[in-house]
Amino acid sequence: MANHPITVEGIDHNGLLILSDKGKTNVDPGDTVTWNIHPRSGVSAITDILRSDGVDVFSEGPSRVGNSNNWRGTIDPNIPRNSEEKYDIHFVRNGSNTVEIHDPKIVVNP
Q1: Cα separation of 27 and 93, whole Å?
Q2: Which of 25, 28, 58, 70 sits in a 20 to 30 Å window from 81, CA-based?
Q3: pLDDT of 12-32, one tens digit each?
Q4: CATH no. for 3-108
């Protein structure tokens, strides 16, 4: 089972997150996905990660790892191949209290 780290690298001029996976992560059943915030990204926190459309591909999480700013979820080991989930990352910029939303996706490999 592989881990797929997704790093929040920054915020573009449209207010969308710049993610290390370019907004699409390909996974296999049983894999783990972790979200991390780069210290110079301009993002102070991820406040939630929620499914917005498609199949729920996670068997656990995504949830915050302890008291850190990192999040982790485990892909369902029994998820059908080619399943796709669009999800929302709820985040807060440095110096703000306003929660913003970015909507990437996870695709289970064929």
Answers
A1: 28
A2: 70
A3: 999 999 999 999 999 999 999
A4: 2.60.40.420
